[in-house]
Amino acid sequence: MSATVRFAPSPTGHIHIGNARTALINWLEAVRTDGTFLLRFDDTDKERSRPEFAEAIETDLRWLGIAPHRTIRQSERLATYDAAAEKLKAAGLVYPCYETPEELERRRRLRRAQGKPPVYDRAALKLTDAERTALEADGRKPHWRFLLPNYDGDPAEIARRDIAWDDLCRGPQSVDIGSLSDPVLIREDGSYLYTLPSIVDDIDCGVTEVLRGDDHITNTAVQLCLFEALGADPPRFGHHNLLTTASGEGLSKRLGSLSVGALRDAGYEPLAIAAHAVLIGTSHAVAPVASLNELAGMFDLKGISRAPARFDPEELKSLNARMLHGLDYEDVTDRLAILGVAGGEDFWEAVRGNLEVFADVADWWQVVDGDIDPVVAEEDRPFMADALDLLPDEPWDETTWKAWTSALKEKTGRKGKQLFMPLRLALTGLDHGPELARLLPFIGRRRTMSRLGGPA
């Protein structure tokens, strides 16, 4: 059965690797079922929502390979939410409350002191019309709460009621809504919190699966009650584990280094980020993939662990390198041209095994085709003179290095690191890198002579 899924970020900042995990899980479900992916901007917070953040989120998703089939903005659907709110008010399922945050906090402390759960006591339901009129005349504006169906007859007598569902990721789940406060749906200024608009959108857009982080499990029980109150069939819910930092800290937008944009700027491949974000914390090994379609075929909602998954940038770096090492020349031809890297397939084959990010290939091209600072120890000067004397004539190929170093070994008696490291330092300025047998033909005889201390 094809699924209709949604990713619903608030455009109040840049999305991070944890948000990308949720977006990708939903996208893969759409790909796997030949379904529909909705991008919904939860932008009813007028003070914090910014168009530039929405644009950045769309850019990040597009770079990851996610192409929404439809994009909606909650700020454009307020009349629809107003109609749903009025329907609930008329049914007596949403009621006005006038307590200030300070008053609510005092009540919570009192209930804790009495050994009771710190939930809202529904005192506002007992207000008379005259009392409400007096409060409003005193300048108080109501916020509106949804009356949870956790009572028999008298709403003041809250009873246990378990709301259960079969979670697509975690299996059977149950939450006692008798342990919850009636959620606020509408603020004093008339603006909506997340809950009601989300339910209305899911109904109107025909969302069949809601896949999100497991920090929303309790919210699901409330939302199932709202679907029922609005006379709609609910979607199926699945709650995946959350990503944390390597130290176990929760991810947040303030961790700019883990934003998708920052990871892109650091040179990571989108498919490496996708594979790592999706497969970490599952029963599947984190491994390179060739496409999101391949990743969709590997991924299984039931294979997600219940424990948080730790995101380690070093592991992403390793995966990124492995992915680059497996790319064929045909995969990167256009990207090499953009970076101004010549050398063709032979050069790519020579250096790809030494890349951590793709931009490293330009550094290696600079090593062979540009100006570098050769490193020659004073005690190695006579050795460099011998190397110059024995330097073969061109044309050069991959056999040139062996012929040259064999002649040097025979003349100087040097071998192993003592033979090869001074040459590497002189020819590349580095103590590491690709095989010099493959690089030497690209460096060429003229540059080699110059770097060994001979004429330019």
Automatic annotation (TrEMBL):
Short sequence motif 'KMSKS' region: positions: 250-254
Main subcellular localisation: cytoplasm
Pfam families: Anticodon_2, tRNA-synt_1c
UniProt-recorded Gene Ontology molecular function terms: ATP binding; glutamate-tRNA ligase activity; tRNA binding
Parts forming coiled coils: none
Nucleotide-binding found in the keyword field: yes
Location of the motif 'HIGH' region: 9-19
UniProt catalytic activity: tRNA(Glu) + L-glutamate + ATP = L-glutamyl-tRNA(Glu) + AMP + diphosphate
Residues the record lists as binding ATP: 253
Keyword Membrane set for record: no
Compartments, record wording: Cytoplasm
Keywords for the protein's UniProt record, in alphabetical order: Aminoacyl-tRNA synthetase, ATP-binding, Cytoplasm, Ligase, Nucleotide-binding, Protein biosynthesis
HAMAP family: Glu_tRNA_synth_type1
Family: Belongs to the class-I aminoacyl-tRNA synthetase family. Glutamate--tRNA ligase type 1 subfamily.
Function: Catalyzes the attachment of glutamate to tRNA(Glu) in a two-step reaction: glutamate is first activated by ATP to form Glu-AMP and then transferred to the acceptor end of tRNA(Glu).
Binding partners and assembly: Monomer.
Name of the protein: Glutamate--tRNA ligase
Source species taxonomy: Bacteria, Pseudomonadati, Pseudomonadota, Alphaproteobacteria, Hyphomicrobiales
